[in-house]
Specification:
single chain, about 120 residues, alpha+beta, about 15% strand, Ribosomal_bL12_C/ClpS-like
């Protein structure tokens, strides 16, 4: 019996954040692709959308730095994740911490994470 896209989406919706991260890593390994590269290729295919000013930003943790505990605390504050999920996200760096943020919110979150000692990018 073949799974439909809806079956897969429902299964992913029932997963924890860490399970989704592990699933993405397994898919990247199996198919030899990078989710980050696919995300970067998406806007380039849009043409006109790339010409407009970006209004939504993704907060990407590039490294945890030396003070990982402080970074985990800030990630929890920004995302509302539990301790286990926040630790998993920090340990899994580089990782997207939060998507589709306004420029102001993204800049504020980036400043907090950098103050805690993390490496951060806005995409």
């Amino acid at each position: 019996m073949a799974l439909t896209k809806e079956d897969i989406i429902n299964a992913v919706a029932d997963m924890s954040v860490m399970e989704v991260v592990e699933l993405i890593e397994a898919m990247e390994e199996k198919f030899g692709v990078s989710a980050a590269a696919a995300v970067m290729a998406g806007p380039a295919a849009g043409g006109e959308a790339a010409a407009e000013e970006q209004t939504e930003f993704d907060l990407v943790l590039t490294s945890a730095g030396d003070k990982k505990v402080n970074v985990i605390k800030v990630v929890r504050e920004i995302t509302g994740l539990g301790l286990k999920e926040a630790k998993g996200a920090v340990d899994g760096a580089p990782a997207t911490i939060k998507e589709a943020m306004s420029k102001e919110d993204a800049e504020a979150a980036k400043a907090k994470l950098e103050e805690a000692g993390a490496g951060v990018e806005l995409k």
